[in-house]
Amino acid sequence: LETTTASQSGFLLYLNVKFVPFFSYFIFGKTIQRNTWISAFLAFAGTAFLVFDNSNADDDSAEDGLESPFTVGDLWCIAAAAASAMFILRMEAASKAVTKASELNAASLWVVAVLAFIWTMGVSWNNLT
What we know:
- This protein is mostly helical.
- It has helices spanning 6-13, 16-26, 34-51, 59-63, 72-97, 101-128.
- The chain is built from six helices and no strands.
- Helix 1 packs parallel to helix 5 (72-97) and helix 2 packs across helix 5.
- The mean pLDDT is 85.
């Protein structure tokens, strides 16, 4: 949030569900229905209109260095949305491979918890030194 606004970040992070049909088709070769393509393109267009609308920019945003309609923070948000879309697709494949959904959920939860703990310890260690 140092280089983008919270509202713009929110709009960009919700690109994850819009990326899913594109990744399904281009990466995994799945057939996508025409209505899904139309919906995805309309959703992308709507997100673009919301993100690149500078009519709500005020003088305070220019002082913060947020006057550009597209920043490096926005790229990070798009990358996070793409990673989330891939997670959705990989979770779909994984859920078909297991018999108990609770085991998959537990494994996913523990992986996230352990990685978050490691990240937090690394940040904390850097702040102490």
